Amino acid sequence: MRKLLLMLTVALGSLWMVFLVLQLDTSLPLDPIHSHSWLEYKDYDFGPESMCNCSAIQQGDREALQEAKLLTITKYFRKTIQIPDEYYINQAQDCRKFKSERKYITFPLSQEEEDFPLAYSIVVHHKVQNFERLLRAIYAPQNIYCVHVDKKSQPSVQAAIESIVSCFPNVFMVSQAVSVVYAGWPRVQADLNCMADLYNSSAKWKYFINLCGQDFPLKTNLEMVRMLRSLKGGNSMETEDMPAGKKWRITTVHEIANGTIKSTGKSKSQPPFNLPIKSGNAYIVVTRGYVRSVLEDTRIQALIEWSKDTYSPDEFLWATIQRIPGVPGSTRPHPKYDQTDVNAIARLVKWWWHEGSQDSAVYPECQGSHVRSICVYGAGDLQWLLENHHLFANKFDIYSDPIPVFCLEKYLRHKALAESEAEDFFWSP
């Protein structure tokens, strides 16, 4: 009898423990963050990345920078960093595995970020690995992403990017792709098509940011959200009076032939509504209201039509729209309101003619190489990059020098997780 009572007591005790565990589990918030090991997202050393002493590189340590330079020219390192397009095509067949192995964070890291979604346009024509690492660095489930792949791109590039995009419900291919021409109107049209798709796909996002495949973030998503909130409904981009040396771009008719743009020698008409044409940058940070104006304002529609036969319209169109009265987040066209690319937050670009070792230079010398007068960052640029206030920087190229991207990825991931902990987002018993 005593043995039977003892067995019943043990059984009841076990049932009671099960009940308590169930009660405890149902009291937990249903948050994906609690079903994963945090180290799973923190560990960013996939292979060649582990060879880099990123913390020392970030501090500008000379020995670490020298080692990084030597590393980039070693045959083994260069071989291990190359990821063929077919890898992405094959791996993305199993989306759950792909997102896990590539360590995408698929849940909001804070309520503040979840309540302030962003919209991105990403224009790509090659170098899939650059694109995939950029997407991973800026990915958050509350944001929305439109990807435009140049119609002239290699079939493997198109297939690889489509495969990656298919794994995410909030990432999509643009509804109408174009053949992009350097300095020609199609480059603007690519962003316009994504703008329209993003605007029509969701009414929740607060700001639009356009990127290319060789951009990379300098801030975490939370830092971006807080910086954008501080704009208080304003936009941020380069917008200045048109320099005399660039006025030929808008006073002469240009046409595209055989994939290149050239002048016809004919004079253009004056801009519609006597709008003052400003000089700027192809990359912008603007509100949803600004995008709505681009898509619907009759003045802007006329300006768009007028701009289609100019040279490099992406370097004046957005800047000009920013100075049109009534456009949400805009500023007056008076020179007092001019803003340089250095003061804006949209993009940090190091131009070779502004580089130098003297205090009078705008930037320190490029530690990488140059493409079209723009610095392709090297490891030695990392410390300087992180000292700036911009959201993104251009250019990065994993295929020529991957270390800046490797180290920025690791830095931003660790910082994002530390911010999440600081926000007390974790459940604590």
TrEMBL record:
Coiled coil: none annotated. It is found in: Golgi apparatus membrane. Transmembrane segments: none annotated. Its main location: Golgi. Pathway: Protein modification; protein glycosylation. This is Beta-1,3-galactosyl-O-glycosyl-glycoprotein beta-1,6-N-acetylglucosaminyltransferase. It is a single-pass type II membrane protein. It comes from Ameca splendens. Residues 1-23 form the signal peptide. The keyword GTP-binding does not apply. Keywords: Glycoprotein, Glycosyltransferase, Membrane, Signal, Signal-anchor, Transferase, Transmembrane, Transmembrane helix. Belongs to the glycosyltransferase 14 family. The keyword Thylakoid does not apply. Pfam families: Branch (PF02485).
